[in-house]
Prior knowledge:
Shape: globular
CATH architecture of the largest domain: 3-Layer(aba) Sandwich
Low-confidence stretches: 1-6, 8-17, 260-264
Structural class: alpha+beta
Number of helices: 8
Strand content: 15-25%
Oligomer: single chain
Amino acid sequence: MNKKIFSSIKSLTLANKGSFENNFGPRNFILSVRQYYLLDLIKRHHKFLLKKQNLSCEKVHKKEHKDLESFLLIKDINTESSVYKGTLYEYETISCLQKNFGMITSRVGGASDSGIDFRGGWNLPNGQKLKLVGQCKNYSNKCPPSSVRELEGVVSGLKSENTFGILSSKSGFSHEAINRFKASVCPLIMVSVINNGEKCKSFVWNKSCEKFLDGLEVTTKFSKSDVCDNILEREPILLYNDKPINEKYWDTENSNEEETEKTK
């Protein structure tokens, strides 16, 4: 291949000897073609790497999965990729919110998700039926205020008064992010899911949520650690009229919601 390229260069140089000598000279012309050839090789290699990365992303998107359990069953996939880890944390958040707070949501994902990772509903014992949209941040550092502003943009763009925005961060939130969250006019909830979706480290809503959450409050439950009996772990739980909400209530509400959806 190289012989063909440089034989072509030689013929071009001879055919245009006069003009190239007067302007750039044959040596400069050969060098420019060599540089062009090297640039072309670099571009092709870059495209190959991008294609390889996109194929890894497509495997996550194309594999059939609808919840945490089905996602964990996927084989022949790079579990160290950022796409896999991000999707896994989304499913962990969805599972944890349903188990602990009765929030029924499903993953959105894809290129046309409008900045939403999951969405669904929350039927509360005070009669409120809220809509939910959420974003998940699988960061190694604490979530910055820019993530709060991003969620505010999503929620305000929906123009629905009873839609709550949920921001889930595996590594917690920076002081600046918490201040932004508290001052927001959008109803927002901050949550931190840990232990592969088994536990919720924190669950807090801002002042804009309070008019919808009459009779509800979050308190802290202390339980023995799975690692050591002498260590107590903190975990947020939801109360209604000063009493913990029984898991059976969420199960009943969710079953009724599913039956309603089927009859539509």
